[in-house]
Amino acid sequence: MIKSNKFKIILSDQKNNKIDLEYQLHDSILAQKWAKKIKHLQNVAIDPVDSNSVDVSDIQNIYSEFCDFAKLQPINIVNLDQSKFNQLHKIYEDTHEELSRRSNNSILYKFHHSIHYNEHKNNAKDSIHVGWGVNGGLLTEKFDCHLYYADKIETNNIYLPWAELGKKPVDYWKDHEPSNQQRFNQLCKPHMTLRTKFFISLTDRVPSKFTADFLEWFDVYKKTWLQAYNIKDYTEIHQYSAPLLAHANHKQDLTGTKFVKIEI
Predict the structure, then answer these.
(1) 87-131 per-position pLDDT tens digit
(2) Helix (H), strand (E), coil (C) string for 139-157
(3) Residue 119: which domain range?
(4) Are 168 and 112 in the same domain?
(5) What is the pLDDT of residues 164-173, one digit of tens each?
(6) Does pLDDT of 71 surpass 90?
(7) What is the C-alpha end-to-end distance of the chain, expressed in Å?
(8) Which of 78, 105, 125 is the last residue of a domain?
(9) Is 29 exposed, middle or buried, given 0-12, 13-18 or 19+ CB atoms closer than 10 A?
């Protein structure tokens, strides 16, 4: 499929100079599946919302545009707190299935990105995200990505982002979502969907340990949740790391660069 399992990522620096980077596909079934899908998309333009290259900070106007598109009466979000963010996320969940079938629906995903951007203000640029949005939709596959998580994230390597319709358990807990098993099972999702996305890490990241407060809270829901999704455990690497897709055959500093193309 890929000669020598090597491929190329092309980035541009702040002076618009092109940078050619060589990568080696990781030896896993997940990485092979991902590469096969990306090969179909390498000549297709990436989606700016999916690739985090669109400004989603103005949630007031984005939500208004979303409500116009969805034909919904907007709720008052002048004073945004976590309970309002939770309400907005529930609106996104409830409308996703119907609106995702409509054409020209980028505002749906822009709205979702805006919720999370504004919900968590620490938005440091620690990776280059790439996605194809609806153009990658037909290549989406149910696959147990949960089994393939790396122990840590290393600079310049390529990883598969968690991209389920929901929240990870620590985020559910931090966001003060309802404390009941049914809602926890509904909103918290392990990584069971292989999407046509990836990110290049700009930093090394070692998963931090779960806090005692979270573990005490999680213990109430964990066993039933694990059984519901047929997974054996949920550890720090599933919360803070990602499945490895490719190793960098270079040591360049990619700070400030932008994605141009993948040749696979």
Answers:
(1) 999 999 899 999 988 988 989 999 998 998 898 765 668 999 999
(2) HCEECCHHHHECCCECCCC
(3) 56-125
(4) no
(5) 988 999 999 9
(6) yes
(7) 9
(8) 125
(9) exposed
